[in-house]
Amino acid sequence: MSPYYRPVRFDWWRKRRAYTLFVVRELTSVFIAGYAIVLLLLLRRLAEGREAYEAYLQWLATPGMMAFHIVALAAAVFHSLTWFSLAPRAMAVRIGERRLQPRTILWANYAAWAVVSAIAAWMVLRA
After folding, report:
1. What angle do CA 111, 112, 116 make, to 5 degrees?
2. Are 87 and 106 spatial neighbours (Cβ–Cβ below 8 Å)?
3. For 31-40, how does the pLDDT look when each residue is reduced to its tens digit (9 = 90+)?
4. Are 109 and 116 contacting, i.e. CB atoms less than 8 angstroms apart?
5. Label partner for 82 (CA 20 to 30 A): which of 46, 99, 104, 111?
6. 28: domain CATH number?
C-alpha cells in the first residue's frame, strides 16, 4: 500500500500573506547570491590587471547592471528588515528573572545595523 500524498498547488504560498512574505523573503537570497558573484568577478578582474578592471567598471555602468544593483539593494533591505522583525520571536533574552521586551531586541538590531552601515559608509566615502 502506497502512502497518500495530498497534491500541492504551485501557488500554495499565495493563499496567506504570511506565506507570500516568507517566499518573497527567501527569493531575495537569489539576488544576494547574484551580487556575491558580481563581487567575485570584481576580484577576478582586479587580479587580471588594470585593463580588465576598467572593462569591468564599464560593464557595471551599463543600464542592466545599474538596474540589477537597485533590485539587489531593495532585496537586501527587504531581507534585512524581515530578518530583524523575526529576531524577537527567535530569541528570548533574559536579564535575571525578567524577559527583555521584543521591541527592545528589535530596536537594538536596528541600532546595530545603523552603526555598522554608518561605519561602512564612512570607510567608503573617506577614500
Report:
1. 120
2. yes
3. 999 999 999 9
4. no
5. 99
6. 1.20.1300.10
Whole-angstrom distance, CA of residue 26 vs CA of residue 20: 10
Alpha carbons within 13 A on the beta-carbon side of 125: 6
d(CA 31, CA 82): 16
Q: Residue 81's CB: how many other CB atoms inside 10 A?
A: 12
Q: 4 or 111: which carries more pLDDT confidence?
A: 111
Q: Is the pTM for the entire model greater than 0.90?
A: no
Q: Provide the residue range defining the domain that includes 63.
A: 1-72
Let me know the angle formed at the C-alpha of 62 by 56 and 65, rounded to the nearest 5 degrees: 80
49 versus 91: which is more confidently predicted?
Answer: 49
Q: Per-residue pLDDT tens for 31-82?
A: 999 999 999 999 999 999 999 999 999 999 999 999 999 999 999 999 888 8
Per-residue cell: 124: 567608503
Q: Radius of gyration of the chain from Cα atoms?
A: 21
Q: Is the distance from CB of 69 to CB of 31 less than 8 angstroms?
A: no
Q: Quote the number of domains for the chain.
A: 1
Query: Is residue 124 assigned to a domain?
Result: no
